[in-house]
Amino acid sequence: MASILAVDDSASMRKMVTFTLKSAGYDVEEAVDGVDALEKAQSKQFDCIITDVNMPNKDGITLIKDLRAIANYKFTPMLTLTTESGMEKKMEGKAAGATGWIVKPFDPDQLLKTLKKVLG
Amino acid sequence: MNKNVTQEVEKKDNDHDRFSNKIDNAGQYLSFTLGKEEYGVDILRVQEIRSWEPVSRIPNVPPYEKGVVNLRGSIVPIIDLRERFKLKSADYTLLTVVVVLQIGDIKKTRTMGVVVDSVSDVITVDKAQIQSAPDFGTKISNEFINGLVSVNERMVMLLDVDKLLKLEELDQTENSVF
Amino acid sequence: MSIDMSQFHQVFFEECFEGLEAMEAGLLNLNIDDIDPEVINTIFRGAHSIKGGSGTFGFNNVADFTHIMETLLDEMRDGRRQVTQIAINILLGSVDCLREMISSIQNKEEVDESRVAQHTADLDNELNGVAESTPPPSHKVSAETIITEPSEVISDSSETSDTNEESGWKIAFCPYLDLLKTGNDPVRMFRELSELGELTSLANIQDVPSLFEMDPEECNISWDLKVMGDIPLDEIEEIFNWVEGDCELDIQPIAPKPVKKIAPPVSQAEPELDTEETIATQAKEPQQPTQPEIIVEQAEVSKDIEAIPKPPTTAPKEPNKKVQLDSDQSKLIVQVASSIRVDTSKIDALINMVGEVVITQSMLGLVGENFTMDKVDQLKKGLAQLERHTRDLQQSVMNVRMLPISFVFSRFPRLVHDISSKLGKKIELKLVGENTEIDKSVVELINDPLVHLIRNSLDHGIEMPANRIAAGKPETGTIELKAYHRGGHIVIEIIDDGHGMDKNKLIAKAVEKGLIDDSSVLTDKQAYELIFLPGFSTAEKLTDISGRGVGMDVVRRNIEALGGNIEISSELGHGTTIAIHLPLTLAILDGQSVAVGDETYIVPLVSIIESINITEKMLNKVAGKGETFRLRNQYIPIIRMHKIFNVQPSSKSKMGEGVIVVAEGQGVLCGLFVDDLLGQQQVVIKSLEANYRRVDGVSGATILGDGSVALILDVPGLVRFSNR
User: Fold this and answer.
1) Whether complex ipTM tops 0.85
2) Fold classification of B25-135+143-164 (topology level)
3) Closest partner residue to C184 among A54, A81, A99, by Cβ?
4) CATH assignment of C166-253, given 3.30.70.260, 1.20.1440.230, 3.40.190.10, 3.10.20.30?
5) Within 10 A of B49 (CB to CB), how many other CB atoms are there?
6) Alpha-carbon distance C148 to C284, whole Å?
7) pLDDT digits (tens, 9 = 90+) for C684-699
8) How far C528 CA lies from chain A's nearest CA (Å)?
9) Are the CB atoms for C182 and C243 separated by under 8 Å?
10) Whole-model pTM above 0.90?
């Protein structure tokens, strides 16, 4: 099954996302911020990255930018989790190379639906 | 509210029943002797029965508070009821027994042991059988006696454990500022 | 599938409290003259995180409240709003309110709606007052826009469904070259389209370069798609919404119908809640599912609308919710008590220790089987090993319960900030040694005494700015709260550079209160000790800050109950230092066993200065005051343990020999006259009061190796006791 890297500095969000995805059969790993995520993404190939935007040490947008620069992650679907529904943040994400976004708050079903869209 | 005497007197499970079991509800009592008289305490309050063992003395407390013992890691005081009620004191023999009781209410319970001469048996008492205690000069003051019951021609005085073991204030204030 | 979210709630609550602490610390550290963007960002993130999580887990009232804070902070971090002290104070108040809200939710209690409403109003006023960019009313306007739009779309789609011909959409999709590099894949989009209706596609490859020139990472193909079926436009658009801007997209209905391009992004999908009425009335409308926006957002909007708090007339809650500083502070400490975070490294160490103990124990078991005398050495070695491992295990376990004292200290910046503003004084709080570790049980109990002492410094210690300048001191007073380990204790010091304590004033006050007689001659130290007497207060006027001064004797009592002591030193005009010594843990004590007649008692090492062998001759009897002993240059009073504990003296003491254990209690030295010193050991403290009673001069009991009970002496108590 596809492997997903879930990045969020909030433990409760991470757990919720992980739990939801795992129940649907995905392999999930967690990272607590952009730095942690970048490290983990380089030691293992993930099929999809889901990341929060606002995080300490390295935010989600910068993470995506950095990941896109890596050959293995040029075309990997990457989604941002954002509460900011302003177009601005979404565009920022896209400019960095994000595939798309999910707006918080979302419920587990929405998350899974979106992932299916991206992973098939 | 009747509890089977063979049931383990587990604190957690029986707390509510134990502490609400006033004399109005008939129940079972453990009877013991002190001198010539026989007394009973609510079986739900009895944690265990032990033989007498040496206590560690506590300074400056009334002499009937004999001291404390280590009961599986807790410090438990031992009270000599004979001395408490100014009965003729007896020597401690191999038969001398300590009845360990749970005093108090749901909010705060204490464990305390009382030295008695010997333990008799468990009696089942029907509410109807309990008579109020007339003041005919029993050794233990009436304020501690909830009622009398007659069992096989013996008269057993049922004790209010909480009142019985309420510790006397020391000369200095009990809840002193220290 | 439905997932039970409540399993994540507890973690979420804890995160919220941590986030709120970080926000509070950030707000206190903000220097309006020199804004540190990192600090603003941290505060913003805190609000943002709480908002996101609370929305996800369904705590919409929290989400809504936090949203306003977030908006304010967002403007500040973007530079669109000036950071003022007023704004900071409003935000600080909101942090408190939020904390209480979350705490109520966590404890399944009712949220104090009136408090929330008040802070919401404060925030809104601040937001509407000086906002430089899109003023909030426009948010409301767009909220209305969102809500009214659906009705337009509805009519559209209802038209669509009316014409019952073969309807569908024609889509010209031309991705730009770099579309693939966003991780989007046209094939996936087509798959989704095919789920909506019957899809036919025609790929245009005329722009694809030859094989040698082609860059496989670029997308040179475009498509003409046709999807048939009764499909609402927004569902088609939704499939393409991520690639908006990375492609050219033209969607045309196949049966003639007005074309609707992707609707302008409605950014303010979260309606402001300042006027609940407006939105409440509109809430009735959007029950219909379709909206011209991304499906995920739609859900958010309707959720928000449903989450409108109860009708504007919320009955005011009973006035039980205290809004003062006190209850907030104490509530906060209660949260500390409910759980601790432990470093996994500590747990690992613990597991290792247990492993060692198990190994040693089974080794001893083997030796014990078929034991013969020649195995004695092995047995001894094994026992020594067991002792070592058990001690290490004990150390590890105690370590688990150790928390950095920052848990306690973290409350104080806020306290100092609030009280110094209230008093009109300028005071800076310096924290030193916040990482010093202290047992969890001590953390819980030391808070109140520290609060009292700091309040004293704030109120009585540090002078008003004008007085300070007049005295040649810097206008801002400093209080240093310091913690460090020393010799098996933790030392906490409160050092202020205020006006110090006036010995003469203290003596005069004590005489006035009848606490000492006027002929007493006291050293400075003794004079300072006067404030610990019950009934003492030098406050010129009673303030609600530190009360009547009855606190100091309570403070000392509380500290001594913890097995510690407290000392004061001061220099008139320069400041005061209060030093508190505490044992590292409440459960275990380092003690000196002493023999008194047949009895064994334990004297806490923390109280012992030294021990001296003596004979009767070395004691001096002083008329009316008992016995004293000359120790270097002072005379210390003797407490004869046999006498006060009613123990039969041993033959040794009958001969006039014994040991004086010089101990400190109540700020004074005393000499405990005992028969012998036995040994030093660590003992586990057991309560005497749990089942029995408080005994004067005794702080607890312990169980010795032979199973018997030994009493632990309470030196300050003994001093008081013997003075009676």
Assistant:
1) no
2) OB fold (Dihydrolipoamide Acetyltransferase, E2P) (2.40.50)
3) A99
4) 3.30.70.260
5) 14
6) 11
7) 888 888 888 888 889 8
8) 49
9) yes
10) no
